Amino acid sequence: MQKNIKPIKLSANKTSSNEQLSSAEMGKLWATYMGNSMSKCILSYYLQHVEDEDIKNLLQNALQLCEEFMQTTKEIFEKDGFPVPEGFGEEDVNLGAPRLFQDEFYVHYLKYTAKAGLSIYNVAIPLVFRKDVKEFFIHCMHSTISLMEQIKEILINKGYIIKPPMIPIPEKVEFVQKDFLNGFFGDVRPLHALEIAHFYDNIENNVASKTLIMAFAQVAKDEKIRELFEKGRDGTTKNLERYMKMLTNENLPTPTFLDHLVTGTTFSPFSDKLMLFHKMDMFTMKIRAFGNSLAVNGRRDIALLYTNSLMKVAVFVESATKIMIEKGWMEQPPKALDRKNLTSK
């Protein structure tokens, strides 16, 4: 039986809902609003074409959470006199556009974006202290976990996904030998469980990312943005092939490509601004995933693989950021006071 941890009772209340927002609270609330305003546009479009009733209900649940998270964030901002971000709206989505994806892709997409949401809330919870913000992010975390369970249930029951690879249970406790770090020369040990888990996770993420950027390259209107999407698609494909090879070399199964779930339409349902922001955001999430993968890795060849991937992804994010700035599309996150340029009145 699980035992509850002992409560700590302090007399002074230092976390009321009336104190000023901290930088962490501002930043995470801002990111939450921006991400969910984008997701609201995308999910609203998906719902125009979905036919599978289970997937339709899943999309409706996800959209409901988006709208709820946006509303709560907006209320906190307005309470504190914080300007509500412009984000994305009706001008960034064409609900009458032809179908761009098959129903199955919606479930894979939701899993990837739910992971992104969980990473925001996971980092936020230890950093936020104001009572209303803390309770909000805890609610976001619990709600997104519940949504993730529905996503996984559909993926498994409809045969859309394979589970992470199975490996033998260890026969005894062992300690690593001096060849543990080998990757290029000498005796190279098999992948351990954490390395396998992160390869699987990165493959799963990049499969969804590649499908999305392939679709965006197909419908983007701006030539420069389309070319960047094509570079991102090709780079993601190369990374995927390298990750898959690491598992297949161990005779382990890998998730498969989802390219067939993109239709042939060239009519864009989304603004170039939304698509570019989305891919910039998704590629930024890859950087965090690579960091997590490097943290549990032991082999030198794997470290080099992830380091190279990280550098290439960083180049894409920088290129996307420059275009966003050139177009006047990139909203300024909350920032510290620029004391060097203060002027007296």
From TrEMBL:
Q: What InterPro entries would the database entry show?
A: DUF3231, Ferritin-like
Q: Which domain of life is it from?
A: Bacteria
Recorded hits in Gene3D superfamilies, A to Z, give: 1.20.1260.10
In Pfam terms, one family for this protein is DUF3231
Q: What is this protein called?
A: DUF3231 family protein
